[in-house]
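Weekly modeling sync, notes
Attendees: S.R. (lead), two postdocs, one rotation student

Agenda item 3: backlog of single-chain predictions. S.R. asked that every request posted to the team notebook include the full sequence so nobody has to chase files. The rotation student volunteered to paste the first one in as an example of the format we agreed on. Action items at the bottom.

Example entry:
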Amino acid sequence: TAEATALPPASADAVVAAQAFHWFGGDETLGEVHRILRPRGRIGLMWAMRDERVPWVRALYELIEPYEAGVPRYRYGAWRAAFERTELFTPLEEAHFAYDQQMDADRLVLRLASMSFIAVLPAGERQQILDRAREVVAHLGERFVLPHVVDVFWCARR
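Predicted structure, as returned to the notebook:
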């Protein structure tokens, strides 16, 4: 696990987590990362978020938002608290990048269906959401771009 990797001490120059740190026990993970990093080692985190400034993308989020209550999510920012409490690492630095993902309706529906809080819904309710997602993107044509903003964070071991 992120909290107990079983790697030897000072065995890594860098640790990277993509789309995941919000699921970890933050304080325990930072202690473990500090233990396995060599002096001056780095930790890097990233998340690719759908760009909700685009109206149809926002409509997709509004479709699934009622189902994500209580699920750890990057967007809520709770993952930052461990970094704010720790003295094991330098303060987080960050950068943001645009990323466009080529998409079609089938691929988008598969992506939404794979979200844990959608996947566990009763089959009929899940299908309604997926059908509504198809309706949201129907005007975009056979292939379209799903815009993202990639948020990247990093800091160094003290």
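Discussion: group reviewed the output briefly. Strands lie at 12-18, 37-50, 93-104, 143-156.
Action items: rotation student to repeat for the remaining queue; S.R. to check formatting next week.
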